[in-house]
Write a structure and sequence with these properties.
This is Penicillin-binding protein. It is a single chain. The protein is an all-alpha fold. The protein has one domain. Helices cover 53% and strands 0% of the residues. It has four helices and no strands. The N and C termini lie far apart (28 Å).
Length: 73
């Protein structure tokens, strides 16, 4: 997928991304044999966000500004 998403689709992806676990939280202990598949899904979503000029590390703050710190770094 290399074309840009429309605004509604991109907003939906951003919202869904905020509910995904962080890659660092995904372990074989927590997720069993599916952990690599989950990591692949997270990376696929991050890649689409980047294609659409969205910094995945800043999405949570954009979607939930009142509950996020001033910086994600």
């Amino acid at each position: 997928m290399t074309e840009l998403m429309n605004d509604d689709a991109l907003l939906s992806l951003k919202i869904a991304f905020t509910y995904m676990p962080k890659a660092i939280e995904v372990t074989k202990y927590e997720y069993g044999d599916q952990y690599q598949n989950i990591l692949d899904h997270i990376e696929a979503v991050r890649a689409v966000l980047l294609i659409n000029d969205v910094d995945p590390d800043e999405v949570y703050g954009e979607i939930n500004p009142s509950t996020s710190p001033n910086s994600s770094y």
